[in-house]
Amino acid sequence: MAITRLGGANAITGTIPQGNISNASLGAVTALPAGVGGKVLQVVAAGGFAQSQTNSTSFIDTNYSLNITPSSSSSKILITACGTLDNQASGNQGKITINRDSTNIGDATNGLGNTYAAGSRVIATFSVSVLDSPSTTSQITYKVRYRATSNYVSLSDQGADGQMIAMEIAGW
Predict the structure, then answer these.
(1) Taking the domain 40-169, which CATH number applies?
(2) What is residue 11's predicted lDDT score, i.e. its pLDDT?
(3) CA proximity to 85, closest of 146, 162, 156, 18
(4) CA–CA separation, 55 vs 87, rounded Å?
(5) Among residues 172, 168, 171, 139, which one has the least CA distance to residue 78?
(6) For the segment 95-139, what is each residue's pLDDT rounded down to a tens digit?
(7) Cβ atoms of 71 and 165 closer than 8 Å
(8) Three-state DSSP class for 172?
(9) Per-domain residue ranges of the chain
(10) Which residues, including other chains, have CB under 8 Å from residue 104's CB and lie 6 or more apart?
(11) What sign does the CA torsion over 95, 100, 102, 108 have?
């Protein structure tokens, strides 16, 4: 069947002869071409973190941490962390960020996520993610850090467990 143009510049109908394309359908594609990244190479998870509390207005370490050793220096590491954050005073904010060893890879001022107490107390969940390019094959420690803006905040409050996941993704 011939290809027919109907109306506008992008309105095309018809069938491309099978001999003109290398794979007759998407179902025939079995692998990505060489050099295309994105494959998950390893996953490391940690959880069951104990509660901690701070009134520091500077980011401080928590016990949310995990280690991963990339298999290639071109790999990316996708870090996700989730848990609960308890703001204990009106107008207070709890801010969360992630560090690779001693380097902040999130937002060093505002964090990757925050909770805000408009009333006297707010307990909220947080979930933050960051894609890192560590350029190393040495072991890396990723950790969640947090801070308050004016009053106490608690991490993993009310016995809620937090989790962290690190996924090594083949570089692209």
Answers:
(1) 2.60.120.1340
(2) 54
(3) 156
(4) 10
(5) 168
(6) 899 999 999 998 777 778 777 777 777 788 888 999 999 999 999
(7) no
(8) coil
(9) 40-169
(10) 59, 97, 98, 145
(11) negative
Query: What DSSP letter does each residue of 53-121 carry, written as one string?
Result: EE--SS-EEEEEEEEE--SSTT-EEEEEEEEEEEE-STT-EEEEEEEETTEE-S-TTT-SEEEE-SSS-
Residue 124 corresponds to which tokens in the numbers above?
A: 């909220």
Tell me if 135 sits within 8 A of 43, measured CB to CB.
no
Q: Which residue has the tokens 């509390």?
A: 53
Residue 16 confidence (pLDDT): 56
User: Two tokens at 146?
Assistant: 């947090």
Rg (CA), the chain: 23
Residue with tokens 């016990």: 63
> pTM here?
0.74
Q: What is the pLDDT of residue 88?
A: 80
The neighbour count for residue 24, using CB atoms within 10 Å, is 10
The pair of three-digit structure tokens given for residue 165, joined into one six-digit string: 């996941």
Position 57 confidence tier, pLDDT thresholds 50, 70, 90: very high
The pLDDT tens digits for 93-102 are: 888 999 999 9
Written as six digits, the tokens of 13 are 């109908």
